[in-house]
TrEMBL record:
Composition bias type Polar residues, residue spans: 40-53
Residue stretches making up the Tyr recombinase domain: 57-150
Entry-linked Gene3D superfamilies: Intergrase catalytic core
Organism: hydrothermal vent metagenome
Keyword Nucleus attributed: no
Name of this chain's protein: Type 1 fimbriae regulatory protein, FimB/FimE family
Residues of the signal peptide: none
SUPFAM superfamilies cross-referenced by the UniProt entry: DNA breaking-rejoining enzymes
Amino acid sequence: MESILEVDFKLFTKSVFCKECYIFVLYFSGQMDNPKKSPNGRNVKSTEKGTANSHERRKDFLSESEMKVLLGFAKKSRYPKRNYLLLLMIYRHGLRVSEAIQLKRTDINIKESRIWVSRLKNGLSVEHPISGDELRAIKGYFASRKDNLP
């Protein structure tokens, strides 16, 4: 009999085809300790060689349906509210992981549905609007927290 994780992985690979996304899901579901290691324990190394001009690279974006699958896995993870919110904000606002991690409660204005994003790497810091489902996810996450940390 197959485990739920194996069944989910088969569905996941049919819809996303992304090894890095699978590793990400394993990490956030508590199935893997280090996202830099593949499921078989070896270090993950990039096989692509850099191009002379970075603008010539093909940009890979997740489609709406692929993002729904990824968010579905986040909801089944060990910390569903946190992981769902992080993935949603990274996707909607184009955040780097380091930018998402640096967000504080004071950067989010729930009354005006706005979020202040401090961009890294010489980017311009900007204020973004927050949509309804994202605002509900933020409120749900804040309500589930037992501390008052930033």
